[in-house]
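I am writing to request your help with a piece of structural work I have in hand. I am sending you one protein, given as its amino acid sequence and as whole-number tokens for its backbone shapes. Kindly check, if you would, that the fold set down in the tokens agrees with what the sequence suggests. You will find the record immediately after this paragraph:
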Amino acid sequence: MRFKLFVVCALACGFMAYVLANENISTEEDLDYQVINAVPQIVTNPKPSQPAKPKTDTEFVEVVKDVPKTTTKPKPSTSPTPKPTPGGQRMIPVVHVTSRGTDDVLTVAGLKPQKQFGALVMPDEYMGELIDINTGYNWDPNNNVAPPGSPSTAAGGYTITPARLAELRSNFMYWFFDKDTKGGRGDYQFDIHASMTQLHKNLNFQMPFYGFRFNYTRLSLNGYLEFSDPPEYLTYPLVFPIKDWPTKRDPSFMGIFFSKCRVGRIYPSDIDQRTPGVYFRVERDLMGRTDQMGVEVRERTMWDIRQGVVGAETFVPKHVVIATWKNVSFAGGIDNSLFMTNTFQMVVATDEVYTYLIYNYAVLNWLSHTEAGGDTTTGAGGVPAFVGFNAGNGTQAYEYKPYSQNMVIRDLANRGWANGFPGRHIFRVDEQILIGSCNKDIDAALLPLTFAPESGNMLGGQVVNITGPCFDPNVRVTCHFDTESVLGTYVDTNRVICVQPFLKAEGYIRFQISVGTQRFKWRGKYFVETPAAATEKIFFTTDDVYKKNPSEIKITWIPYNLTTNNNANVMISLWGYRETKIEPQLEYIDVIEPSYSNSGSYVITPSNYLNRKNVNRDMQFGFLQINLTQPDQYSGLSISPVLWSRPVPLAWYMAPQWKEQHGIQWPRALCDNWLRSDRFLRNFAADLPLCPCTLDQAVLDKGRYRPDRECDKDSNPSCLRHRGAIHCVVSGTPVAQGAEQQCCYDRYGYLMLTYDQMWGSRPRRVHNLGKMPWNEASKVPSLSMWFHDMRPFYSCCAWQEEQAVGCETYRFERRPSQDCVAYQAPGIAGVFGDPHFVTFDGTAYTFNGLGEFVLARSIDESNRFEVQGRFQQLPSNYYGDVQATQLTAVAMRGNTTTTIEVRLRPLHARWRYRLDVLADGRRVYFDRESLKFQHFDGVTVYTPTYLLNQSQVVVQFDAGIGVEVVENEGFMTGRVFLPWNFINKTAGLFGNWSFNKLDDFVLPNGQVATINTNDLRSIHTNFGLKWMLTDRDVPGVGAALFTREFGRMSSYYANSTFQPNYVLDPADFLPGNRSYDAERAEELCGECLQCQYDYAMTLNRDLAHFTKNYYDTIVNMQAENAQRVVSCGVLQTPRFGRKLSFDFMPGAKVSFECNEGFILLGDQRRECLSNGLWNVPEYGYTECLREVYYTRRIAFIAIGIIFLVICPLMLCIVCGVYRYRQKQLKEDPHWQMPVLPRSRASSARNLRTLNYDDDSDTDASTLKKTKKWDLDENDEDVTSSEGEKPKQSGRRSLRASGTDLDQHQNHDHEDHEDDDDFDEADVHTGTIHPAGYHQPLSPEEADQLHRQQYSPAFSGLDSRTSGASSINYTPQAATQNRFGGVPVLPSNTQYYSRPPSGVPTATATPLRTAPTPLTQESGLPSPPLATSPTPSVQKSTEV
């Protein structure tokens, strides 16, 4: 019985072995019989069934010395004379006889499928049959024997020739070998068969795929490379990603023909006798390889991808994986279904950053397997194979439509046209799936367009390669960039080139193409870079281009940006920009160099352009442009790419013309012209937000300010136009009128002002982003900003002195810095950990909701905003599920702005980008310098310039709202920044911002919940869940803003029944056997309860660490912003002077200095007081004055002091005397002011007069105002008519008095009360009145005195001032008039006509006629002897 069982088992095993052997053809004898030899034999006689005409083309093969000559007589060759090959190989021409016929199903690269067998037929011609004379190996690309040797990096290795490269690239299939020179099986994977369908392969390098990165793969018989386990069973049609992940497995794979397969068979008559099955080959480290196989694989793959995929012009493969499925049949077939086979190949090339795939479909004879409904004999019908990609882990998938799981999948072998091959399709798969092949079988209202590059300079000239529809050279292609249209240039079936025109726009614009008469259905988004922020293509080695008169300017560029042709010539030209009308004007100026080799460097000599006479000489800034002189050198097409420089001032070119037009002071003239025009424009300073006082405050104001590209401490610390600054910030979005604020800070972190120096912060009339509509003057991005704000900086300040009038007008009047006196720091709220919240008012609490919730929203309908968060459950720890959640996504939107969403990427997809950013559902990336700051409708999104992994994203809305999302080790935090106009206008989990913690828990209905922050259950039930979102709009809550993918709605993430841990202290919720975890939490976190909670819940140190870090950060930020900002504001720098420090915070002491040649006036130092005011100047406000002006000022001040002090004093004296006189006259009408003598002589005469008779009848009112000259010892008489006589010394003293009768004189006289020289004692020669004053002489006495004192030496002109002289020519008066003065007799007729005192006016008659006036010529009689003892020396005086 046992023997019978043994026999039965043996027979069964034998039968099974026979079946397996026939199915897999695995025996060595069958393999030796089925495959061809290592060195293929040349077919000399074509088969009768192949009537094709022999081909006369010749190829070169290596000839080994002992190889016998062929009997076939070669035909004449048209190939060029062969050159010696490396390594001493000798090449001879070999005739190739073709037997390729036409086939109505498939003809690919000379490979013809046998209809009846489904096998691949090898053509009779062998392309480039080369035999190495050293090893004897045939390097024919279709050889089935793997090359000998090992990878090598030795110097002086193999160098591929262009002819050899062209020969390799003319083959459709890449290498795959089923033998090697050592008797092995080459690339053939004999371990893959029906009972084992996949095999694990270690790649030993990182291969990026669909956001993830893998260092291994699994080769599957079922037509894909896999990176994770597939589902246990599949449902057709296949749908990826698996929605039930992680409950069900969601595999990550690259599917070239995802269908259940088995190894097929071939007929002995098939020429290609390589073993049916799966092949796998890996070529690593190709960049340094010098062996022939490594070099050929690298060069062939590199050029196939570069020319096959747009945007891969710089790609160099580092590793290449070649997987081939040869003659595979469908599973479940019967009869001869094993001979119904498909052959396809996948080539994966990567540099560990970018990954490209090449799908080569050689033969497709069946479509589906039997489980999918396919026929059991032909594999037709059912659900065809899946073609596409799945990222896995429930993330994202891409299905190659319309071929995948569709009957047109058979067309894959005739479509694609990558590299000119039907059946070849190329993809880029590292981050997103980008198609590199055309698609003519798809039609829809909106089709995705693949193009590269995806951005370009606004000025135009960017060559855009486009792939999408299949192109025809005879059909016109129109490219539409926003509002501009251009015609495309045909390259091949798979590619069209369009040159971007000059676009007056910025950010993402619509980009679409039309083929023929079709509508624009192929669409995409093209990013327009502003000229000031565009990728720099022309570099200035020095700053000479910005100077007033440089001697030379050296520029460089990357030649490859124009063409790979090193012999190409380029033209360098100059362009300028101006706004003299409503339409912006970008105009050509001159050719700098008409033809120059594309060497990458050039030196501009400005002196070569001295004699230029440009009609547009008013252009003050512009650009350099470089383009090809012969565009045919660029890919053989009549188009040329264009390189642009950054905006530069044009003084180096235009200065001679400006000097000729405006003179040597041309900078001043240009500045004055700008000042006149700028004064006509509206004042925009009031629209701008105020600058923060310190750098710390500026960095924390995420809602209003972002780093300035021109002066960024992290990426561009040069600060060319802000010397001394270490960092500048600008307003993130334009204000309502399109202006931009700029705030720069020095090394001490203080705000720099233009009042202090020309390098200070300068607000701008036009934002760099411009303002809609962009096609109008003063609204064009970058260009209008340069025209209105940058251009005058150079003409007014940089090209003049800092103290020039134009520069100071620019700094103080037109572009003055705004101080920070009224700056208000924003309010901040945040969420972090698992999760913990801190409201705007500082309330901290924990809420573990599962789903999507409102973080903050505005209740003001006129200025709305919404910030929402998605919370998902944390991964399990060692003890099982974690009953807590974490923040995984944030979505936000303003009033009418673009919706921005920031997501946390899956764990293994964070190798390159940490966060995903979606703008209106479309992913955007910030991995290039020109894409760091991106502007959308009403919102600006940027990542810090020093980050390349998108781990920090800042979103700024035009209302001043900011949202910051930060990721660290897979844990997110979100912070919201609000300006003060949202106080008492917020709601959500971040509470109501009112500076009152009691109303933080506001419900959607407006009521305030009374909640204890330590009661997590109450917070969860009574407050948190009230703010849960759904896809429908809920009053007071709103609708979810998150992008929905793969049918995952809000209900997919929400679970209102989720019960988290409601105990906050780890010591209270950890079991007793986990006391170590509680101790560890306290050790790691200290007193931070949030940190202890997170560690105890997850046992994740990273989460605990970042929870503590995030909590401390937001608390410190709130404390910083809560501090009152005290600033003394602007302290103006004196003109022609400077401040020794620019601090304006309390305690700062600022000293002043003046320039040379100036004198400082006022206080030399000012101090900022603690109350925010500068101290009151003790000596006046500080100013610097030129020395000459200072002298004049001192003189004027002295004169002013005299005028202001002496005159009022005199006026007071006069008024006092007048009042006193009036008072005395009121008491006594006969009172007269006593007058003191002015000289010793007068005093003596007064004393002598007191001895006269007091009984005088003369009325004092009859005295005339007189003038008398007294000759004193110190004066001499200069009026003598006699000759030279001894000089008589004396002193002149003028006395005057007057009465009412003097008002008719021709000359004005002053009253004796106002005459300081009047001495009344001089006119009294008689007695003293009893009242105490002198009585004047009576007319009779005066007449008698006249006869005694009359002298003809004075004219009538002076007689009016000489009457009533006090000099007495009497013998008694001889001792008084001791100097012999000449008495003067007045000639005033009025004097003689006035009546004497006491006589009535009616009876008044003239006393006597006035004597005839005498002149100097009448002679001088000698005076009385008693009066003049020495008349011979007496001199006369004349007035």
